[in-house]
Amino acid sequence: MITVIVDRDKVTCNIIAIYMSGHSGYGEEGNDIICAGASTLCYTAAYALTDICGYDDEKVLRIIDEGSESVNVRIMIPEEGDEDTKNRAQVIMRTVELGLMNLAASVNEEGNTYIEIIHSKED
User: Is residue 72 very low, low, confident or very high in pLDDT (cuts 50, 70, 90)?
Assistant: First the structure.
C-alpha cells in the first residue's frame, strides 16, 4: 500500500509537505498504474514548485531510498518567498492533494486499499 501524509501547519492549515511511501501492490513492479499515477502527481508538484514558484529543486524534492521497489518521496515547500509565491505553492500542493485523494477514491475497493491518505497538522 502507498501511504501519503499531507502535513499541514497547525495555525494556517497550509500544506507544508507531502510524504509518499510504499508500493500499491496493484500490479507488478514497473507496471503498476496506481504507483505510476501517484508518482506522476508528486513529481509534477515538485517540478511546478520549481518552475512556477522558483524554488530550488533540491529544497523541494527529496527521494529517499531511490533503489527500492517502493516509492519514498518528500515534497516540501521552503519557507522563503513572497506572499504571492507562497499562495501559488499552496494551489499546487492542494491540487496534488486533491489528485491523490481522487486516485485513492477511484482505486481502493472493499478489502483492498492501494493508497491511503493521512492528513496531519504540525505540532
Answer: confident
One DSSP character per residue, 66-81 reads TTSSSEEEEEE--S-S
Cβ(78)–Cβ(58) below 8 Å: no
Measured in Å, how far apart are the chain's first and last C-alpha atoms? 26
Distance CA 31, CA 88 (A): 33
Residue spans per domain, the chain: 2-121
pTM of the model: 0.88
Cell of 49: 514548485
- Rounded Cα gap, residues 97 and 114, in angstroms: 16
Q: What is the pLDDT of residue 31?
A: 86
Q: How far apart are CA 108 and CA 42, in angstroms?
A: 19
Check if CATH label 3.30.70.1490 holds for domain 2-121. yes
Rg value, the chain, Cα: 14
* All three cell numbers of 120: 496531519
pLDDT at position 9 is 92
Residue 35 near residue 26, CB atoms below 8 Å: yes
